Amino acid sequence: MKRVTIDVGGTFTDCLVLDEGGDIHAFKSPTTPDDPTVGFTDVLDKAAHHFGLKLPQFLSDPGLLIAHGTTLSTNALLTGKIAKVGLLATEGFRDTLQIRRGYKNVNTTRFNLFVPPYRPLVPRYLRLGIRERTHYTGEVSIPLHEEDVLRAVSRLKDEKVEAVAVCFLHSYLNPLNERRALEICRAELKGAYVTASHEVLPVFREFERFSTTVVSAAVGPITEKYLKTLRSKLGDLNFKGTLYMVQGGGMVQSVEESARRAVSLICSGPAAAPSGAIRLGQSIDTDNLFSVDMGGTSYDVCLIRNGVIPTTDMNWVGEELVAMKLVDVPSVGAGGGSIAWINSLGLIEVGPQSAGADPGPACYGRGGSEPATTDADLVLGFLPADYFLGGEMVLSEDLARKAIGKVAEPLGLDIPTAAYTIFTTVNSVMADKMTEISTKRGYDIRDFALVVGGGAGPLHGGHVAELLGIPKVIIPRFAATYSAFGMLNMEVGRDFARSIISRRSLIDLARVNRLFDEMEHEGRQVLGELGIAAEGIVLKRSIEMRYLGQFHEVLVTDVPLGHIGAEELESIVQAFHRRHKELYTFEMPGREVEFLNACVKATARREALPLAKLARATNGADACLKRRRPMLWDPAVGYEDTAVYDGERLGAGHRISGPAVIEERATTVVVPAAYECSVDDVKNYILNRR
Fold first, then answer.
1. Residues facing 341 on adjacent strands
2. Concatenated DSSP letters for 10-52?
3. pTM
4. Of 176, 212, 320, 551, which is most buried with the most CB atoms under 10 A?
5. What is the dihedral of CA 447, 292, 441, 332, to 10 degrees?
6. Which of 443, 427, 465 is nearest to 689 (CA)?
7. Are 307 and 267 in contact (CB under 8 A)?
8. Using an 8 Å Cβ cutoff, are 643 and 625 in contact?
């Protein structure tokens, strides 16, 4: 049985195939923004050709599993290419979406007085009030006025809305009114994408629930259309296997579930990388890791402590809040395609604008004319002009120099110096983002090993590590397909949550047990529909808690399965105190504790991904020397003749002292002078600071 993972990025579509023998094969193809399914099938065609098969033959295996991550939903939200959405809300609460707890400057400093007013995804004339009311106890005090729903549906029809979100007060406790309104909308609005908050995010806090549901409705039609087109195209190609979608929460789920809860695909691709980092960390016996992924348009970072992938429910995507639990992977616009420009102070900046996949950096020769990071890498000599993607694409240094001249000439710089400035600037941008989620949160970045992925990551990773004083860098064999590698390590499953909202002294344990039982039953049902046997299902409980008077909560994972009684409750409270002290260095044992949300994670049991061992080297690394090339390591010294090694010929145990470059088919590893590179037995390049 083969397992395939495909990550559609901003510039390239990456594919990994784990064959029956446990070997992993990597493939890349340019992303096709106008129709991502073209790049998807193109990279699958490359994989099929590698195995000596036509694509329909390759896809006809009933045991074939494909896990697919995509930035489609995220990009649609960020670019505004979303559906026209209508909102049905409890009468008097339609403006909850616009008031949004008073949040204003979510992406800039609070001192910026020129931030324009927030424009919600649903304009006010499409936000319609419905007479109904459910109390905080779950009691329905005003039954649903169905005539209001029918009148609202008629108006939304006239306005030609493409999607509808139904968000009523306290529907997370009792969805009776919301469920009935949902049924009416789906019956009357044929062809429209309709969703409701109790399906998307059944927990308390109105704005967070409303916002997440509206985002799901906004990206729902484009997501549903893409998934339908993809399944149709795969069907035409005789696909007999199973297709899973990667969720932003760090697991994979069925296509049907992903279409129903489209918001779950937000941050789908980047969420996979940390799972790969944990597996790679096991090879050097460490679980404190800094995972970074430098692609064509962005640089995604994730700080992993004690082998736990961090998650957050405060996810701002552009101006919209997605309050689902997603993997905490902040990003900054610094990638291989990021464009260099001169700011108002006469200084070179890089990003967040990107050349993307089309036309791409100037050196691609596809019509791009702006200077990008990749152009600078080529001019500095780090990137081979004749071996990009293993020689599939020839890069033009002349076009790169011409583009860099746009920032060099106004500043009176020569081309190499301008290229070096672009290189160091983008490295500083990436280092600053890493500092933001480590040092500024109280963690010493030197205590973590840096795992570098992405097509451009291995070229810049060593220099970023040097800037931050990180002693160890792991560059995996499949760095260029890092997110796709992470998908091979992800679990099939889903997160569930229900609100408790009670002080410890008033908690109803019977209700708590009932909520956990409901979620665990639903988890078994969802995974059972995917063909997973009951004995193969793993359930993990957690509870979000806080001290009385606090605003933010802490996730407590030490929650036992089975019946929760007084003794188990006390152990959970003690676990909360310990976790609070671990995070914030103090605890308050005498203070009342609040229980907010009960959570269940249902996953399929799996074994750790086996990594094929590499043969031990029988000769020195010099035997793998490919050539020498002039490279600019220091403008004060000028270009220096530097050794370039053939990564395909390197074996376990080989050591290479920097400065040096290692060329792989899909990426280039740059070893700065401060580091020594060793090759381990699974073909990771380990950079140790000397």
1. 349
2. SSEEEEEEE-TTS-EEEEEEE--TT-HHHHHHHHHHHHHHHTT
3. 0.88
4. 212
5. 150
6. 465
7. no
8. yes
